[in-house]
Amino acid sequence: MAARRSATPQNALRNNPAAVIAMPAVIIGLAVWAILWAVGVAPLTAVVPAVVVGGVVAALLWLNAPQSALAALGARPLGRGEYPRLENLVEGLCTTHGFNRPSLHVVETPAINAASAGRRQLAAHLILTRGALMELDRLELEAVVARQLCEIRRGVAIETARASVARIPGIGALAVRLAGGAAGHDRVTDVDIEAVRLTSYPPALASALLKAEAAAGLKASGAAGHLWLVTPHGAGPAAGTRPSMAQRIDLLGEI
Q1: C-beta of residue 160 within 8 angstroms of C-beta of residue 117
Q2: What is the pLDDT of residues 176-229, one digit of tens each?
Q3: Helix (H) and strand (E) counts for the chain?
Q4: Taking the model in full, what pTM does it have?
Q5: Quick one: which of 19, 131, 170, 171 has the most CB atoms within 10 Å?
Q6: Confidence at residue 193, expressed as pLDDT on a 0 to 100 scale
Q7: How far apart are CA 11 and CA 2, in angstroms?
Q8: Rounded distance, CA 127 to CA 4, Å?
Q9: Which of 97, 114, 102 is nearest to 197 (CA)?
């Protein structure tokens, strides 16, 4: 069923980062065309600079998407040796299961959460909150890291692009809505299941999700709400529709 869903034209478009990046480029290009026309430039002549501006906007959004997403998350690079337990878990999972090793980042908040971002698997970013690093035990942290590595392997370019676009003042929210919603129930629960099959211990991820829900709320940019393991309250339009925490935990209990 999952393969058939992904094969539909609607899902193919929704899973293409270019579809998200194109929306603000088109909107800005049309605005440039309208302004030039309003000041007396011939409509056909105005098309060329409008297309050029739109193309430049699209290229900048795509190239800067990872850093823009990290900025929206409030993440900073985690220094080597700053948190050895995390480094060992990431190294072990990557070696055992063939993941590409991501760069590690931390968000200084007591909230328990994690996220992934990047345009390519070979240059992806794994983000954890300070609360997750301090409050999760080894099995719980391993489960969360495994889940985010599975997310990266499936591809987070579309979600990273969506975060970049959502940060554009004035038109970001509109562009995200026009491009379509973020990953929904199927993607979120499929990644949960994939992760616990790697660790062979579903209760660890379920426990981490419960701790995340019970911990202090995350004060995060709405543009990046869909990137988090647990969607923060008040997440912006990029977040789409996701399963409830109870649904995710119940599903893990059935494995």
Answers
A1: yes
A2: 877 765 555 578 999 999 999 999 999 999 999 999 988 767 776 778 888 999
A3: 13, 4
A4: 0.86
A5: 131
A6: 95
A7: 11
A8: 32
A9: 97
